[in-house]
């Protein structure tokens, strides 16, 4: 984004925020969206305060906008200073945990909503449900906002709801006779998906030149493949609504069988367990697979950027890559179950130190978190990511922005968002921790062994079931 666009974004953000304040019933321009008491003297001046935020590179241009964000926030709230500390994705967790352990975390940190329970356990998060105004709350789509809750508490504002989908090469899909527009609209069953990816396989003698489907399953992606699939098999969460551990269901075994079948068909590489995120994307851009996963909306933008580099012949494109039109595709459904999209919600989580913050500081932190998660700031960031806007104010701000997205992909993501897996703030922290332990100690290593054909689906299922019963008891697991 050019500097001119940055300035325009800032002006519009200020105008949008002031418009929101007016709509909230303020009779003067010094009202605030947080609705806190106006601390200070009779002249209406508020005490100075500084809000700190630890933020990673949420999008490609996000961190380059920090200075402008700080300036815009101070223009909106002259008595307040927003101090942003940048972090890389690699050191974000370490930096945050170091500050948390020292008892002096930032006021705001950008983390995944799945990390909220961890810091609730440590009693270092700040519940803002009594400070966030009705106007703020009503600005957000309901589903993503629920992810920022744990029990009865609200611990920040969501930045986006990202859907984990699949991604296809348009040319290859058409060559295979796959009506991808119908699939985007209506979805597909596992059997339909299995037959479709068989058609995408291209062999040269005994060697597979192109696979029908490749999914990253190594490294940080080790948990993704199974977690995304089982949501479409009647297990949208690790616990049922009555808090029984879900992965002892017979449906879990059937999904494991299907995972193995796709490799045995030759539609996926036998070496799938060694494919990490980087190799997965490289294989897609170099034409070695028709469909890839986990697909994110921003991948369309990444593919477009690589296409432009190929056109320019500047040598910076991925080695051996080809032009690719990226198509968003849903994950197949299993066993007649309804589709449930795997959603990731990250956002601006509010922290507290060892002492309770003053009511004034708490209100100011909420103002800053809302500023980052809404309006022009959110619109700019989410457009950079190619993800949907989740606040009314960001949707309005985004109308003035031009984003080069395939309209079929936009519509497909809207369908996926319509059946995103709901948040589960009702799952007790201690149960969630035990489920994560089973995932790390049993599910992930056994899945790697299954993908490598070292164990059978039945053996993996029995291992998970046995550990679950040991952990939760016979009455604490699903039996069907």
UniProtKB/TrEMBL annotation:
**UniProt keyword annotations, A-Z:** Cell membrane, Lipoprotein, Membrane, Palmitate, Signal
Task: Report if keyword Transmembrane helix is assigned.
Answer: no
Show the InterPro entries listed in the entry: Bact_solute-bd_prot1, SBP
Say if the entry is tagged with keyword Ligase: no
Q: Which residues form the signal peptide?
A: 1-22
Q: Which PANTHER family match?
A: ARABINOSE-BINDING PROTEIN-RELATED, POLYGALACTURONAN_RHAMNOGALACTURONAN-BINDING PROTEIN YTCQ
Instruction: Supply the name of the protein.
Output: ABC transporter substrate-binding protein
What is the native source organism of this protein?
Paenibacillus puldeungensis
